[in-house]
Every structure is written in C-alpha cells, then in structure tokens.
Amino acid sequence: MERMKKFNVIIGDPDGELRPEADVLRSEFLTILVRALGYEDAANAAKGITRFADVPAEHWASGYINVAVSLGITVGTTDTTFSPDDKVELIEAVAMIERAMGYEVVAQEKGGYPVGHLVIARDKNLGLNLLDDVTQSSVLPASRGLVAKLFDNGLAAPFYEIDSYSNGVPTYTQNKDVTFLSKLGFEKLEIVNGEKSFILAMTPNYGADEDKVQLLSITNRNAGETSLVEKELNGEFDLDSFMGKRIEAYVDEDGKIIDIQLAEADKTSEIVAVEISKD
C-alpha cells in the first residue's frame, strides 16, 4: 500500500493515515482508478454535471466519474444512478480495472460480467495477475488495502489495444509498453541487459554518497565483475534493511529511485564482495 501512496494512486486521509482495513466506496474507487490512469487533470477539468441523478455537479467525485464514463469504465448501477456511496465489491473493482486496461472485449468473449472478468484476472497467459494472493470472496466489499493489492498486482501488466482493422473489424493486441506504471510516469529499473533485480551493495550509511545507492549487477557478479552502478534516490527509505540483498526498484521520469522492494525471485540475503565501511 505504501507503494501506491508513493505513486499518488492512493492518498491518505487528512491525518495522513492510509486506513488499509476501511472499505472503499464506488466514488472513491473510480477516483483511485482515474488517478492510476494518469487522468487527474482531466478529472478536475470534467467536474460538473453528470448523467447520474445521484451524482450532482457539485459532488466531489463528479469529474472522476465523468472521465470514467467517457472511457467506458462504468455505466452506473442503472441508466440514471451510480450509487457513489455504496461500497465497491471486489468483482466490481476487478471489472472496472480490466475495462480501463481495454480487456472488456475479452471479458465478453469469456462470458461477460462477472465470470469473464474473473477468468481474465487469473489467466496466466494474459498476465494481468490482478487476483494473485487474493482469497476474499469476489462479492464482498473491497478494503483500501485490497484495492492497493489489485493495482500492485497489475502495475506492470500490458493494456489491450486496437492494433489494426480488417473490413472495419478491429484486431486487438497486448501492448507491453502501455501499463499503469507507464501511465503514472514510472518504470522498473534495469541496470544491465534488461536485468530487473540486483544487489544493494552500498547505502549512505555504508560507503555511498548522500541520497544515493550503489547497485551490483547479478550478471556481472556471476561473471566475476564487481563494478557498481550508482543511482539517486527520491524519497526516504529504510535502506539498511535491504543491504546485501537482491532487490527490485522503480524509478521516476528523472531516473531517480522512488520505491525499493525485495526481489520475489530471491528473498534471501546475498553476501556482497565489495569493501564497505560504516560512516
């Protein structure tokens, strides 16, 4: 959930609390989704009259709901209502995320709502992975923590877009260059030949300059090389807990690291053959 906060997808309450156990309202969920698509400015511009009788122009989420409707993410609970204060169910959240990613046409082919959306969420060939490690019933309300999990699971999943037309009929394909991550202006850090996990070899407390870290390529290490790659940090991190371990990182548009996590492939400690000293 902290990663979604760093990416400005989920924002805390006025006290800065993320409240992971709190249920998410339908209006709140669409706000989170529109932010994840990078359309917050559009939502601010779209604030005003909506097609729904229960979402007046002055409603705080009217702009987000208008953007979501224009993108085909939602049609409301009826033709004239959206039910903004109802709790969003897990299946509703999954379906709206998949529509935002362009997969509604696939969902219809696989049985429509809700079955088709559940199939897509778990289809390893498509790779959305939205429901990985999610055990809750799909018809129960989704908490803030669970919504964060959905977005975290699908952060780097490809969107589904029209590739071409044949006799007026569109052909779709997955576009790996378009993801929630890319729409937010972030990317997964690669340091050597597409390598997306590496060893944190030095931190400011252990030999690196202030606000910087030194990373060791696992490929280079296996080849007997010990040269390090320096990266600048954007934010505060508990770096020493990652020292000597295999990590993954996300960077912003300036190439600065905004988030660090242990690599899933190997969460064991690594011994780094680099001489370091604590300041």
What does this structure look like?
- The protein is α+β, with helices and mostly antiparallel strands.
- 27% of the residues lie in helices and 16% in strands.
- The protein contains 10 helices and 8 strands.
- It has helices at 2-6, 26-36, 40-45, 62-70, 90-100, 104-109, 115-122, 144-153, 180-183, 218-222, and strands at 159-166, 169-175, 187-188, 198-202, 212-217, 228-232, 246-251, 257-262.
- Strands 3, 4, 5, 6, 7 and 8 form a 6-stranded antiparallel β-sheet that branches. Strands 1-2 form a two-stranded antiparallel ribbon.
- Strand 7 (246-251) and strand 8 (257-262) form a beta hairpin.
- Helix 2 packs across helix 4 (62-70) and helix 5 (90-100) runs parallel beside helix 8.
- The chain is globular, with a radius of gyration of 21 Å.
- The protein starts with a helix and ends in a 17-residue tail after the last strand.
- Mean pLDDT is 92; it is low at 268-279.
How is this structure best summarized?
By secondary structure, the protein is an alpha+beta fold. The protein is built from 10 helices and 8 strands.
Q: Approximately how much helix is present in the residues?
A: 25-40%
In the predicted model, the low-confidence regions spanning at least 5 consecutive residues are: 268-279
The value of Rg in angstroms is 21 Å
Strand content: 15-25%
